Amino acid sequence: MSTSTPSQTVGPFFGYALPYAAGPEVVPGWRPDAIRVRGRVLDGAGQPVPDALLEIWQADETGEIPRRPGGIARAGHDFSGFGRCGTDADGGYWFSTVKPGAVGAGAPYIAVLVFARGLLKPVFTRLYFPEDAAAHADDPLLADVPGARRATLIAEREGERRYRFDIHLQGERETVFLGF
């Protein structure tokens, strides 16, 4: 008699120094042009994922992609366009950064990678800003996403320079993820 192989996830992995204290601070919060992006990573049942790791990559406020390496000191003058943040017990994360300018045609966005339990590879998505609705119409990636699903890629504005972007890994509210 044969039996099926039991389901297992990969890991756990040794993650020493992957999240670091200044990782979420792409720019210091004291900068007058700093924005704060926060949100939660949720599974298919709407439960928090407390051990996910997020990375963001973005252009600067003029739409230029950083070409030189940044430091982990985050002194405010070495914009690298990169941030990393682990989720807390409630699946929460945050980043302090600048609102990117558009890179070429399309709307400004922040590229988001999510590493989480049960995923063999990270998933990729984008965070767009709600005030850029006119640019959304010309964005080639958003044009390929069915209208009802586009909202999963657009952050909610919570106030001046504050945004919320929840990431749903599965389920009815699943965030659109990109395939490469």
- Give the helix proportion (percent range): under 10%
Biggest sheet, in brief?
5 strands, mixed
- Overall tally of structural domains: 1
Question: What is the overall pLDDT average?
Answer: 89
CATH topology, which one?
Answer: Protocatechuate 3,4-Dioxygenase, subunit A
Radius of gyration: 17 Å
CATH architecture: Sandwich
User: Based on DSSP secondary structure assignment, what is the total number of beta strands?
Assistant: 9
Q: What overall geometry do the principal axes of the alpha carbons give?
A: globular
Low-confidence stretches: none
Number of helices: 3
Distance between the termini: 40 Å
Structural class: mainly beta
What is the CATH homologous superfamily assignment? Aromatic compound dioxygenase
How much beta, percentage-wise?
A: 25-35%
SSE string, helix = H, strand = E?
A: EEEEEEHHHEEE
CATH class: Mainly Beta
What would your notes on this structure say?
There is one protein chain. This protein is mainly beta and 180 residues long. The chain has a single domain, classed as Aromatic compound dioxygenase (Protocatechuate 3,4-Dioxygenase, subunit A, Sandwich). The chain has helices spanning 133-136, 140-143, 147-150; strands at residues 34-42, 53-57, 82-86, 92-98, 109-115, 123-128, 156-159, 162-164, 167-168. The strands form two sheets. Strands 1, 4, 7, 8 and 9 form a five-stranded mixed beta sheet that branches. Strands 3-2-5-6 form a four-stranded antiparallel beta sheet, with no helix packed on it. Strand 7 and strand 8 form a beta hairpin. The longest helix is centred in the C-terminal third of the chain and has 4 residues, at 133-136. The radius of gyration is 17 Å and the shape is globular. It starts with 33 loop residues before the first strand and ends in a 12-residue tail after the last strand. The relative contact order is 0.22.
